[in-house]
Amino acid sequence: MRTIEHWIDGRTTSGSSTRTSQVWNPATGQQQAEVLLADSADVSAAVASASAAFESWSQTSLSKRTKILFNFRQLVDARAQDLAEIIADEHGKVVSDALGEVQRGLEVVEFACGIPHLLKGDYSDQVSTGVDVFSFREPLGVVAGITPFNFPVMVPMWMFPVAIACGNTFVLKPSERDPSASMLVAELWSEAGLPDGVFNVVHGDKTAVDAVLDHPEISAVSFVGSTPIARYIHERASANGKRVQALGGAKNHAIVMPDADVDFASDHMVAAAFGSAGERCMAISAAVTVGDAGDRLVDAVTAKAEKVRVGPGRDAASEMGPVVTPQARDRINGLIGSGAEQGATLTVDGRGYTVDGHENGFWVGPTVIDRVTTEMDVYTEEIFGPVLSVVRVETVDDAIALINDNPYGNGTAIFTSSGEAARRFQRGVQVGMIGINVPIPVPMAYYSFGGWKDSLFGDKHVHGPEGVSFYTRAKVITSRWPHVGNPVGASYHFPTTS
Q: Does 281 participate in catalysis according to the annotation?
């Protein structure tokens, strides 16, 4: 059985803990590896390496940092297929989808390659007689990322390229469900010329997470995951004096107006609900139909859901793979069943789905549930599976109110041909990321990603300008160089300009 180790100080290591966790192939249902689970001593070893590396890395010129980032970008691009296949084998998503994940991660690396421009400060000449004021930003020190299973390459790349470009050193605690991609990323950083200790990977469960949150030498923590864990991360790390950006769960709605092109909307709705088996924080899990759009949309998504090609991620013909674990499959099936029991209508039931030759895989087929109400479990829970719930309302204002009543505020979309309805929606909805005829409105890397309400704990979103701000702190310098022969007298009153 292959054992996945940690990456500390530029090399693999088994560390001190002997605890392990299973790594599955979701398409076959078979264990393909075990991953070591770190204890607090292993986290401390990674932090010690990162802390030692920070002394020199934080003083490394922007030109040299940028050169290493460009090298890393080129290496990741060259190994994109390898990374995608690792993701397919351990997460279950299809290779084409995994390649898209790698590309979106690379976009953040490309953004970070512009760090010399992003870190430019401000300068004000002669703010007072002989006095100048200027500012610049400095790195924090050792920072950490705790990342989920659903994007084992992209979500860590939301964090560490910007953090490292800003002069920080990084400790990554990836999901123990699909840990291998992070190890290849670590090797590529080393090959790119990144000094040992600047990037470290420590695998683990709650023991490792708590060690990260409590370690006094970690200055900031970035997290993406469920809302209960995001709240816990934020509270515990903040109590220990750390900066925290903790992105939580989501219940993403897409409004379909009566004037929408139903064929266009249903195509995108099916892709947004069932792509990556619905295991996306930006997946559309609730379609909100307005007026007479309901029957037409349900008929269209039902027909298209039944045609989705479900199969193993390595099969080029597959459009959707399995879910990540048997526990995930069973939980999703239970929520589908609860929808039917509570009065919704199953127009497509994905329970009991099997794939020929892969009968032991963790399969849930595309599922469409019509006439869902906001009290049903299938609506209130973040399902994180290939399930599309359809909620019917009368007006666009009803739809906006429904979305605003939901505790989550991650992403949302509207399908319409009315500019007035779209503008009313974008101004009225209390959600951080909005799509207009775009079902998954993930912003480009030079904008920042993050939601509102229970989808974000902390005040900074990831990557983009807010990412640079999160991983740095400002210094403001007020400077005077008086003429040696003409000294300026001191004053006891509060300093003012003159």
A: yes
Q: Name the band, by pLDDT with cuts 50, 70 and 90, for residue 486.
A: low
Encode pLDDT of 192-246 as tens digits: 999 999 999 999 999 999 999 999 999 999 999 999 999 999 999 999 999 999 9
Among 115, 230, 281, 378, which one carries the catalytic annotation? 281
**Cα–Cα distance measured from residue 470 to residue 170, given in angstroms and rounded to the nearest whole number:** 14
- Global confidence as pTM: 0.96
The burial of 122, by beta-carbon neighbours within 10 Å (0-12 exposed, 13-18 middle, 19 or more buried), is given as exposed
Q: In this structure, what are the phi and psi dihedrals at residue 114, rounded to the nearest 5 degrees?
A: -90, 20
Alpha carbons 366 and 274: distance in angstroms, whole number: 6
